[in-house]
Amino acid sequence: MSEDMSNVDTAWLRMEQPNNLMMITGVFVFDQPLDLGRFRTTLEQRFLRFDRFRQRVAETRRGYRWETDPHFDIANHIHHIALPAPGDRTALQELVSDLMSTPLDFTKPLWQFHMVEGYQGGTAWICRLHHCVGDGISLMRVLLAMADESPDVVWQPPEELEETQRSRSPWRIITGPATAAIGATRRMTGAVVSGGIDLVSNPSQAMDYARFGTETTMALGRLLLLPPDPKTIYKGPLEVPKRAAWSDPISLPKVKAIGRATGSTVNDVLLSAVAGALRRYAETHGQEVEGLNVRGVIPVNLRQESARIELGNHFGLVFLSLPLGIDDPLDRLFEVKRRMDDLKGSQEAVVVFGILNAIGMAPSEIENLVITIFGAKATAVMTNVPGPRQPIYFAGAAVREMMFWVPQSGHLGLGVSIFSYNDQVWLGVATDQSLTPDPETIVAYYGQEIDHLYALTQQAADQSPQNSAPAPDDAPPTARVDLPPETPAAGPAGDDLTRLVGIGPAFAGRLAAGGITTFAALAASTPDALAELVQAPDWRRPDYANWIEQARALAS
Predict the structure, then answer these.
(1) Any idea what the CATH number is for the domain that residue 44 is in?
(2) Please, are residues 210 and 196 in contact by the beta-carbon 8 Å criterion?
(3) Nearest-angstrom CA–CA distance, 25 and 430
(4) Are residues 512 and 452 part of one domain?
(5) Where are the alpha helices (DSSP H) in 15-157?
(6) Pair (7, 144) in one structural domain
(7) Which candidate among 44, 162, 454, 489 keeps its CA 20 to 30 Å from the CA of 439?
(8) Above pLDDT 90, what percent of the chain?
(9) ω before 86 within 30° of 0 (cis)?
């Protein structure tokens, strides 16, 4: 059995280079040992039901084809190894880093699994799959489709599974982003879709039809005219060795609490924390960060929600500029939110899908040129994938945590992955060893940034007269963090103006410098006078009238 490889899948195949492998790498962690026999049987029944995982890549005169490997043996793809002592996080990260730097065997189907014994008394499962087989959403669905809701679920035949998985599967959440992305894509291309062509159901026509859409043409022009990203410690020639690190779990309710307090999405909060972590790492390594912005390439899913799992690549990309130059965590979060909101009305994702489709047909020299251009316009690849909301089981064992990394296409040396599962969030960072040899430092800064944001928002919410309702039972405790030095919020005889929602240490310092140090003085002011003192950037849009109302309540 054989079939032609799609143009977009061909593009991802041809991006493979010795110093920048196009693999999606994942880690599943279990508290108990996995049964190797049941593990293998699960793969045979649930993974290999997709023909693609028995097929290898064959090059022809016209391009590439998928053909069945006549010598396929599952034993060539499953490896059972032991983690060196002491079997801790550091040892597992070293192993993942080595595998992330090692190419797959192109004479065989492009996937490989390692079952690793001895990790913290349990087992880790490392999976590697080539990006040309499928994008992160499709491959994630394949992997999670091997999971169960309980340890002893009876295996259903594939046809029965597909009939029931929409309503009862633990991995249905993976299709959620697809639904949102489809709606967003249709909104982004409303004029095009209403003209009779649905770019979601037939995305390969996106680039052809885009030539006739003014908005899409403008998006293409803006994309191609983006100036190169600034030279930073995160950019430079790549080498073969890669480094991988990931965080301890972070409470998802904690992240949502930050979002509620600031009117931001979970994604806004997490990306803002990433920007803060990259800023701190750059500062500690002598990088000038004043006014610095670096772009992250973010995948956008263009799939329709469906119970049926389809492999291949069906996503676009958008370029998010991260404000590393903003020191204040709240200011940084609001700016990330503003920029993300702007991207939601952009057509970049569909345009990039069309470009990927086109370069899959182009000579390799043209493809390399386009990839180089894209690589110059960004610094990192960033993904955020929501996983199952409840615990899942694989081969009878409960999955404690999961982490995934996508490849850093376009000669980029930094990959950031955010994954949520069972009300927890993990951050994974993959780097080129020559550029960023210690990604675990970025991971540590990320956790501190989340703590800092939570402390700032909870302080304002807890002390505000408008937010005096008791916290929900599942709310995490207020984080204890050391806040950075700021201009004092008030003088010796003044009030703590940061008790008001919307006023952080930076704004309180500007008010104090203008002579407003008490609730009474703030209550007696006017919105225009406050705007003159605070000099907030346009995107921040403080609600000065609300500040005055809060101050009057406290002053009385």
Answers:
(1) 3.30.559.10
(2) no
(3) 10
(4) no
(5) 36-42, 89-100, 136-144
(6) yes
(7) 454
(8) 41
(9) yes
Please give the single-letter amino acid code of residue 257.
A
Rounded CA gap, 74 and 72, in Å? 7
pLDDT value at residue 402: 92
Task: Tell me whether residue 72 is in a domain.
Answer: yes
DSSP annotation of 45: I
User: What pLDDT does residue 62 have?
Assistant: 80
Q: In the structure encoding, which two tokens stand for residue 114, read together?
A: 């390692």
Domain presence at residue 24? yes
Q: Is the dihedral of CA 182, 421, 85, 429 positive or negative?
A: positive
C-alpha 122/C-alpha 124 separation (Å) is 7
Q: For the chain, what percentages of helix, strand and coil (3-state, to nearest 5) are there?
A: 40, 20, 40
SS3 242: strand
Residues 155/146, Cβ–Cβ less than 8 Å: no
Cα–Cα nearest to 451, from 246, 269, 267: 269
Q: Is residue 279 located within the same domain as residue 139?
A: no
Both tokens of 119, joined, read: 């990790």
The interaxial angle of helices 252-262 and 266-284, nearest 10 deg, is: 100
Same domain, 164 and 182: no
Place of tokens 């307090």: 261
Do 313 and 368 share a domain, yes or no?
yes
Tell me which of 120, 141, 168 is where a domain ends: 168
CA distance linking residue 311 with residue 111, whole number of Å: 14
Both tokens of residue 154? Answer: 């009876």
Residue 442 neighbours by CB under 8 Å, 6+ apart:
245, 277, 278, 281, 429, 436
> Low-confidence residues of the chain, pLDDT below 50?
157-214, 216, 463-492, 539
Distance linking the first and last C-alpha atoms of the chain? 80
User: How many Cα atoms occupy the beta-carbon half-sphere of 59 within 13 Å?
Assistant: 4
Please check whether residue 27 lies inside any domain of the structure.
yes
User: To which H or E segment does residue 179 belong?
Assistant: helix 175-188
Task: Extract the tokens encoding 422.
Answer: 């069972």
Domain-located, residue 467: no
- DSSP assignment of 320-368 equals EEE-TT--SHHHHHHHHHHHHHHHHT--HHHHHHHHHHHHTTS-HHHHH
127 and 197 fall within a common domain: no
Listed residue (88, 138, 129) closest to 308, CA to CA: 138
Close Cβ partners of 289 (under 8 Å, ≥ 6 residues apart): 279, 282, 283, 324, 325
Q: How many angstroms separate the Cα of 311 from the Cα of each of 126, 165, 403, 552? A: 20, 17, 20, 60
CB 486, CB 509: distance < 8 Å: yes
Please, are residues 516 and 496 in contact by the beta-carbon 8 Å criterion? no
User: For residue 336, what are its two tokens?
Assistant: 């990330």
pLDDT of residue 232: 93
Count the domains in the chain. 3
Q: For residue 278, what are the domain limits?
A: 176-381+429-457
pTM of this prediction exceeds 0.85: no
185 and 60 within one domain: no
Final residue of a structural domain among 168, 200, 215: 168
User: What are the pLDDT digits (tens) for 492-541?
Assistant: 458 888 888 778 777 888 899 899 999 999 999 998 899 888 887 654 56
Backbone angles phi, psi at 127, to 5 degrees: -115, 145
d(CA 135, CA 94): 25
16, 74: one domain: yes
Phi, then psi, of 113 in degrees rounded to 5: -120, 140
